[in-house]
Amino acid sequence: MMAEPLSSTASLLLVVVVLLLLLSPRPAASLSAYEALKQFNFPVGLLPKGVTGYELDRDTGKFRAFLNGSCDFSLEGSYQLKYKSAIGGYISENRMTGLSGVSVKVLFLWLNIVEVTRVDDELEFSVGIASASFEIDNFYESPQCGCGFDCLNKVRLRHSSSFSSN
């Protein structure tokens, strides 16, 4: 007994389903947090090594990234950074706002980094009352908790300006 050929409507439906499966983007969950950063034109080095997972609402840009625990390290001998075990905020092309879970020590004060903006080949970090710009090539690699971006050579972070008032 021979199978009946598919009707033209069923054939068309099958082609549409196959095309949709082939053309639909990968779900966000299949990307790493580092790959998700790249989709918004940010380098992976904004997150330390060891991110265990993340959540991203593509409609609102709200995100959260998770580490096994808190993470801290020094940069350039004068900047100390701290990441909590959960980092959050809102992300869009070239801009992160409403950040929580990341702080920098300036002089004797710990200040929350609340915004990161990419302008050409620089990243500007804002703590609300002040900001500092750094060259993007400093962030092509993820820092390592405890020792930062270059644990072997202790390379100094190049920046365009010191913290300045907004």
UniProtKB/TrEMBL annotation:
User: InterPro entries in the record, alphabetically?
Assistant: At5g01610-like, DUF538
Where does the secretion signal sit in this chain? 1-30
Q: Which UniProt keywords apply?
A: Signal
Q: What is this protein called?
A: Uncharacterized protein
- Tell me the organism: Trapa natans (Water chestnut)
